[in-house]
TrEMBL record, chains A, B:
The lineage of its organism: Eukaryota, Viridiplantae, Streptophyta, Embryophyta, Tracheophyta. It comes from the Eukaryota. This is Sulfate transporter 3 protein.
């Protein structure tokens, strides 16, 4: 009992609330409270930290009204940023890169539309309007906009689950456009409400697992085209696809197989060369269009349909027809459209933002996530009214764009123009393009999504990240696309909660010759301080972990006492909790701290806190009950001062 | 660029990977890596920290086999702990407290059964078998076991939603027992699987809001009995109850109202007296039974049923009949029974554990949460086979038990005996007991659950806890019991995720005369160090916050540079990140750190880390790519050494 009461008696007149001993020779510093704030002020501050961490308006400070107008225009339409300084040299680079990505975008557009069970022409439409809108609104200079594989796959999968694209093609198309519209609304509102951090909840390991699984699912689906099978399962699961493939061997067409695999090998070799030598990026960039041209020529010469090789057939000429009248906001399928919109919206957003950030950091400029979301959202909303389905910045085409030397969003305009030209004049040429070549293009595109090396690295560095990755992978492969995604996000969340629920507590020891106290399990040279048990709590103290922490700290005390008896060392007198990492404390946590202090007091053990951060000391202070228990002389600025002050007091004890 | 390369050149042969400069006069300490562990070892350690934080087997260490057997028996059946030392004096205390709680348990048992829409006798059955089982298995000395209001309310509410207790009483009873069985299974398995921390997820603010809302709902329901209304709504919501009350004014019976409110006032006065003077606890403890006796006598004399006062009527004599044959594990309602079991199971568990812990800490002994869960679970499983519904330790009766001086679980045995005596011989006496008195008893019991003062304290200390509390309160009151609970748990979780998603970053300054660096917003005396920007990150770095942190740190750098230009101070050279509170780092976090380092390098700004904790340095080291970027000389043991070492290097720069 003596410790606390002695101390208080020897110091009857502590006038300032948090003052600490000054009668001792050593200098003890107060733990300061942060300046007082009103409730409104602190709410306002949390609010602005939450929604405006990047302080988007800072550039408007101290500017003339005219300059402010210009800045606002530039802020809303990034095109005003670079347009005034645009020149012929930049334009030349952009034309080259724009044409390069167009050669990719045309075959990929047709293929990805097939992945979403949509008519091939929708893929071209989607490579025309959205890139133009993005060029005006988007802030990334390297993003190549258009349909992407993952979002196409998921949209096709979710819609086909309830509506058959073969039996009810108009309804299916309506739903696709409506889902695209909702995807756009969702994306734009995330950006507008500055909730962009939502996409961060899909962690990279999760995405890698998810994309790997989806790539395998997509590739398996392509076996239909690659083997020339006509009756194929509607399901996505590994098992049902395999059944379909080996159940219908009679439908296998050797002509199709021969053509498909030859071109697949060609495409994969091209991809491999470009991977090994980034300078030869144009080989893999040109490969798909070359394959299409080659295979169409062959198909034309041998009259493919006579040899069991299916071709695309007649495609309508002309630009995007308006489709606003096809949007449907009522009826039984509205919830399906909304759900599909949200899932594809978030997936495509994640891809677009990640691509934008990657290339921005390579070229050392900043992409504003929230603005980017609004741009992508508006682009999709406009797209849904002009016969486009979900689009975003594509990983593969943006990489080609970057490698081809794109300088500004003009490369997207060039690409859109090339697509326009194709739609106006070249559509009849696709009549003989074999379907099998589209399957080969899809496989060669998605194969790059399987990132085996990163998975191995995850296993080495972080087992839990690896687990999340694997769960996403197998979830997508064997359960369903949505479930895989849900499981992976769940595991990532769970990981955060676990860390908060079962935080580390470590014993600190003094590093000889310094005033630092460090983890004894980490620093071999750290030494125990007699009479003291110094613990560091490596987590905020919340309702989810306060009972655990109480038990765990009591166990440390018990173990230390047992050790002391075994080693015949000096008796334990004081427990110091290093609170540096306790960055938050809720009411349950405060109660547990007080309870622990009282329980230890009864055992003549003193409990003192060292180095509480601003909001913890503030909260301790605000709760009269806790403050009474801890008082001013159980809280020190650092462990060193706590040890020095408590041990000088111990000397005065009987 | 010079900083890093200079440093490396001057130190070509750093043999140990994490060695730091030694050519300088100041002493720089290595940041140690914790000792190497195999994957298996680290998984084993995390596992045991997660499931066995209390090291439950420590008492078995170094004991003889016989002693081990005794300890094991004591561990499994806490009765062996105290039974050998039990004596007459303890027994006397236990008899007094046992009879006191029996006088509460009998009227409350009958009332709470009504709350769950069960026959009153089930309430008495439930106060007989479970206390006996708990006395053998339970480790709390003060818990008074029996039916409780919240679990009764929720069970009644959830079951009545699908099955009418009036039209289908047998099915309803079956479902109640089955739900009780599942509650028991759920509770016991939580304990057995050592997942007891699940109950911690219902934080105290959440519970206070929830219980306050439920108390009001319960009280409103009692208006049926209190006003003598016969046709009353089946719903729980505030609005529908009010409609029922004022829609049926013709059914109001003044005799019932007079009797009900008189006794309610009596009970509330008794409660108030006991609250003000804890020594007079027996007044409120005796009040319910006294009210029952008094009102029954009056009712008998005036022949109440003739005066529109409804009475309980005939009750069956005898002990609990077996009910295992009533459990039903198939059919349409199985999922309802399971759901009800889990919800009531977790609610009653939360109450039981909280009560046990509260009184254990008052008397300074430990209650093992996981063991307690198994005891409560087994008690409910056994209860479901002997005509009992969900039971747990009750807040109100345990407080009376404690105040009446209970010493061991024998008080539960005494209570059970008193209930047994009642069931065998006194049942006919309840024939004339008016229903209205049961409503009055329920109201006076639940009114104590409305904890207005704590809610006010929450508002003062912690706005987010207050918000969770209010959402639970209004959710229960206006939406539904389950939704209220869900919303509140959601908010509590969200709070944790928010703290991780938008962590604090603060600028540190040197406290003059010390080697400590502290938050400049908190410590007024802290001073900036020229050339340096020292930031502390107050959270683990995860995928959810790494993009935010990158943006925020870059903003700090930008603002600092602007400030320096404004104040004409010396140019910024180095950014030190204090990692003391960064207790975890995932792969996304590592990538962002490396990216930031590279981006700052390009701007000739050096980024160094100070004081990484064990698992962070380990992870940095394990990832070859990150380690290459940060290398050994960008990581220091503390901020002081980082500042000293970097500034001595700056001097050698051109």
């Amino acid at each position: 009992m003596g410790v606390t009461s002695n101390k208080v008696e020897s110091l009857p007149n502590t006038t300032t609330p948090i003052s600490v001993l000054t009668t001792q020779p050593l200098e003890i510093h107060k733990v300061s409270l942060p300046p007082n704030k009103t409730t409104f002020q602190s709410i306002k501050q949390s609010f602005s930290e939450f929604f405006f961490p990047d302080d988007p308006l800072h550039q408007f400070k101290d500017q003339s009204p005219f300059k402010k107008l210009i800045l606002a225009l530039q802020y809303l339409f990034p095109i005003f940023h670079w347009a005034p300084e645009y020149n012929l040299k930049l334009f030349k680079s952009d034309v080259i890169s724009g044409l390069t990505i167009a050669s990719l975008a045309i075959p990929q557009g047709i293929s990805y539309a097939k992945l979403a069970n949509l008519p091939p022409i929708i893929g071209l439409y989607s490579s025309f309007v959205p890139p133009l809108i993005y060029a005006v609104l988007g802030s990334s200079r390297d993003l190549a906009v258009g349909p992407v594989s993952i979002a196409s796959l998921v949209m096709g999968y979710m819609l086909r689950d309830q509506v058959s694209p073969d039996q009810d093609p108009v309804l299916y198309l309506q739903l696709a456009f409506t889902a695209t519209f909702f995807a756009g609304v969702f994306q734009a509102s995330l950006g507008f409400l500055r909730l962009g951090f939502v996409v961060d909840f899909l962690s990279k390991p999760t995405l890698i697992g998810f994309m790997g699984g989806a790539a395998i699912i997509v590739s398996l689906q392509q076996l239909k085209g690659l083997l020339g099978i006509i009756h194929f399962t509607n399901k996505m699961g590994f098992v049902s696809v395999m059944e379909s493939v080996f159940g219908e061997t009679s439908e296998w067409a050797w002509q199709t197989i021969l053509m498909g695999f030859s071109f697949l090998v060609l495409l994969l070799i091209a991809r491999h060369i470009s991977m090994r030598r980034p300078k030869l990026f144009w080989i893999s960039a040109a490969a798909p269009l070359t394959s299409v041209i080659l295979s169409t020529t062959i198909s034309f010469i041998i009259k493919a349909p006579n040899h069991r090789i299916q071709t695309i057939g007649h495609l309508q000429k002309g630009l995007n027809p308006p489709s606003a009248n096809l949007l449907c906001f009522h009826g039984n399928y509205l919830s399906l459209a909304i759900k599909t919109g949200i899932v594809t919206g978030i997936l495509s957003l994640t891809e677009g933002i990640a691509v934008g950030r990657t290339f921005a950091s390579l070229k050392n400029y900043q992409v504003d996530g929230n603005k980017e979301m609004m741009a992508i959202g508006i682009m999709n909303m406009a797209g849904s009214c002009s016969s486009c389905y979900v689009t975003t910045g594509s990983f593969s085409r943006s990489a080609v764009n970057y490698n081809a030397g794109s300088q500004t969003a003009v490369s997207n305009i060039v690409m859109a123009s090339a697509v326009m030209f194709t739609m106006l004049f070249l559509m009849p040429l696709f009549y003989y393009t074999p379907n099998v070549i589209l399957s080969a293009i899809i496989i060669s595109a998605v194969i790059g999504l399987i990132d085996f090396q990163t998975a191995v690295k995850l296993w080495k560095v972080d087992k839990l990240d690896f687990l999340a990755c694997m769960c996403a992978f197998f979830g997508v492969l064997f359960i369903s696309v949505q479930m895989g995604l849900l499981i992976a996000v769940g595991i990532s969340m769970f990981r955060i909660l676990i860390q908060v629920t079962r935080p580390n507590t470590v014993i600190l020891g003094n590093i000889p010759g310094t005033q630092s106290y460090r983890n004894m399990g980490q620093y071999g040279e750290a030494r125990r301080v007699p009479y003291f048990l110094i613990l560091s709590i490596e987590s905020p103290i919340y309702f989810t972990n306060c009972m655990y922490l109480q038990e765990r700290i009591m166990r440390w005390v018990r173990e230390e006492e047992e050790r002391i008896i075994r080693m015949k060392e000096c008796e334990l007198k004081c427990i110091v909790l290093d609170m540096a990492a306790v960055t938050a404390l809720d009411t349950s946590g405060m109660e547990v701290l007080s309870e622990m202090k009282k329980a230890l007091d009864k055992r003549s053990l003193q409990l003192v806190l060292a180095n509480p951060v601003a909001n913890v000391i503030e909260r301790l202070h605000r709760s009269a009950k806790t403050w009474e228990v801890f008082g001013p002389d159980s809280i020190y600025m650092d462990v060193e001062e706590a040890v020095a002050s408590v041990s000088s007091l111990l000397k005065y004890q009987p």
